[in-house]
Amino acid sequence: MNQAEVKRRQAQAIASVLAFITLVVIARLAGYNGVAYVAAAVEVYALLCIAVSGGVSSALGRILRLRGAKGQYRNAAAMRRNSFIFQAVLGALGTAVLLLGADGIMVKLFRTQYSSAILMIFAPAVFLRSLSSILVGYSRGEGAELPAAAADILRQILILVFSVIFSRMLGNYGDKVSHLLAHANFMSMYGGIGVAIAVTLTEVLVVLFLLLIYSVSKRRKKRAIQDGMRATDSIMDSIRILCRNRGGQAGLQLSAVLFAPLGMIFWQKATESNEGAATEYGVYAAGFCVLCGIAVSLIMIFLIPVCANTMGLLRKDETRFARNAFQYGVHIGVVHAAFLVVSAMTLSKQFAAVLCGEQAALAEKLLKGGAPTVLLVALSLYFARILILTGKKYIVMGATAAADVIYVVAATVLLGGGKAGILSLVYAGLVACGVLCIVLGMFAYRVFRQRMDWLYVLVVPTEAA
């Protein structure tokens, strides 16, 4: 992991903070029902985007860099062309799936019929996201990480701005429809439609931005192609190589986000009132998930350079210094996360009032019960990043998939009891993240063949917190 990739990953963390802020804004404009409707549509949209284009940019970047290093410029040009055609077709199929299946997915599976229109408007963004992943892969193939970082931040800024504009505009119209039909949910639905329009329009602008960057370097590519080796890969060869290289990362991404739609599906099925369930889920998403997500993203900004430093020392065979750097990263994660966990628990009333307003009482319960999730998620991400960089991504994938199973079992048991309510998702997440953190930590420490310094790393920071 070089410095350019470190900056890109830090930019992704900053973009995540902006995404969580956008969720708070949506709650203000569309209400907590609107947050739940948007969340359901986004969860389906995210899963399909990962299935269509997950891992494409990094896989294509590796392939193009390798062929460029060997002087196979014509072969690289064929790979760019064939991968673009393949991803365009795959993205179009993904868009068709959402357009045709939106109603069935939202009504029958998620029980949020007001999300159907939102998901249909998200559909073109699957195709656009597939194109943008290819264009980012072109840039990464030349060793340039700046376009990817710029696209991530630009995407979240534009989504935030456009969400405010379109949600307010359509929310006002939905409010009139709600008064006319005496049904309050139309305001939330139209506000969510505004968010979907914002995302789709943003993806159009991001694709144009990446096309502009690509066109700047196109002339140099043409000169390289003229001097390069003859192309040898057919379109089927290119597709096979691309799918083989992106499969592991796409599977890891799917297992990492699968808990969110599963949690919502089980929550909606366990409750009698779908509208009341949507409101509580909106508080869970816009209150608890936002605060935990922002905290974890800020911690990762500090931990990403530690990962790079640790791997740099390992590549130099300076194992003892790499162990110290790895242990230092664990210590940083525990100290920062412990401070944020204690802050979230002791100031839960104040945070809940800022984030959730009239739903502050429920948000306060969620924060008090689930704040330790910040520590578990931050350490899990740190251990996972170390394992992936050391070539053990399938261990991470297996551990994450096992955590999903544990989450489903815990959520089913807690929701079946009927007493914890939406806190069931928080407690299930705590159990799953705890198991994931322990398993990944064990494998990460085995990589460095060392034991945790319990006193320095865990006991002292915990007591101080």
Radius of gyration: 23 Å
**How does the helix and strand content classify structurally?**
mainly alpha
**Based on DSSP secondary structure assignment, what is the total number of beta strands?**
0
**Largest beta-sheet characterization:** none
If helices are DSSP runs of H or I spanning 4 or more residues, what is the number of helices? 17
The low-confidence parts are: none
Shape descriptor: globular
Helicity range of the residues? Answer: over 70%
Strand content: under 5%
Give the averaged pLDDT, no decimals: 87
Topology:
Layout: H1 3-53, H2 56-69, H3 73-109, H4 116-141, H5 146-181, H6 185-216, H7 218-227, H8 235-257, H9 259-270, H10 274-315, H11 319-346, H12 348-356, H13 360-370, H14 373-389, H15 393-417, H16 423-448, H17 454-464
Helix pairs in contact: 1-3, 1-4, 1-5, 1-6, 1-8, 1-10, 2-3, 2-4, 2-8, 3-4, 3-8, 4-6, 5-6, 8-15, 9-10, 9-15, 10-11, 10-12, 10-13, 10-14, 11-14, 11-17, 12-13, 13-16, 14-15, 14-16, 15-16
